[in-house]
Structures are given as C-alpha cells and as structure tokens.
UniProtKB/TrEMBL annotation:
This is DUF983 domain-containing protein. Keywords: Membrane, Transmembrane, Transmembrane helix. Pfam families: DUF983 (PF06170). It comes from the Bacteria. It comes from Bosea rubneri. The chain crosses the membrane at residues 63-83, 89-110.
C-alpha cells in the first residue's frame, strides 16, 4: 500500500514562453495555437473559441508600441543615415520613402507584437493567466477636504 501526497501549494506546470510568443505573433491563442487571438486589428477576443482560455485579462498596455517604436526607429534611422552617407537621394525622395516606410512597418508590426506580448503574459501567468482572479488595484481616494 502506498500513500500519495497531493501538495496544493506546488507550483503549476511551466509554460513554454517561446511557443506562446510564436503563437501570439501568428495571432493565435497562446494556449492551444488554434483559436483566433484578435477580433479586430488590436482588440483581443475575450476567450479562445477553440479551447476556452480566458484572454480578457491581458494587459499588454503600452509595451507593444514601445517595442515597435524601438524596432522601426532602428530600421528607419539606420537606413536614413546609411543613405545619407553612401547614397545620393534628393530631399523629395527622403520625404517620400522614410515616412511611408515608418507607417508601413508600424502597421505591419503592431498586431504581431501585441500578440507576442499577450503570449508572454500568458506563459508567465501574469494578470490572471495563472488561473486566479486578477488583482484589482485600489487607488487611494483623493481627499476633498484639503488635508483637514
Ligand atoms: Zn485556445
């Protein structure tokens, strides 16, 4: 006869963050990889249509734009400097290429980047992705009496 111990405080199984990021970048549920992650360009679904994983509590917030700005800034500024150093473009060509490239790259990278951030949050069990209800942040009430 054997005795089995069930430790409820044991850590949950580790999630593969690389796979979750890849699935998020493809616009798929980070849990199953089948259901859609977005219902609009940057609006995530409330729950996965394939596996039911709740996705409403994601908090990507400003991180995807910061990542996109960093990537696009390096490409555009680096390209502009290289063309200035080695090329012979007119000012009109610069005014056409760099703003257009900036807009196209930002639009192309924004959704995959947001999906990747949501996938990472899911893999790290952030913001309720660990199974527990998300913590509600309570802000102290502003004093109306002016310190009295
Ligand atoms: Zn799913």
């Amino acid at each position: 006869m054997s005795v089995q111990y069930h430790d409820l405080s044991a850590p949950a199984a580790e999630r593969d963050w690389r796979q979750a990021i890849r699935r998020g970048m493809r616009g798929r549920c980070p849990h199953c990889g089948e259901g859609r992650l977005f219902r609009a360009f940057l609006k995530p679904v409330d729950a996965c249509e394939a596996c039911g994983e709740a996705l409403y509590h994601q908090r990507a917030d400003d991180l995807p734009p910061y990542i996109v700005i960093t990537i696009v800034g390096h490409i555009v500024v680096g390209g502009l400097v290289l063309v200035e150093k080695f090329g012979d473009w007119s000012m009109g060509m610069h005014m056409l290429v760099w703003p257009l490239l900036t807009v196209v790259l930002c639009l192309a990278l924004m959704q995959p980047t947001k999906g990747a951030v949501i996938g990472l949050q899911w893999a790290l069990r952030m913001h309720g992705f660990g199974g527990s209800a998300p913590q509600v942040e309570v802000q102290p009430a502003a004093s109306r009496t002016g310190g009295q």
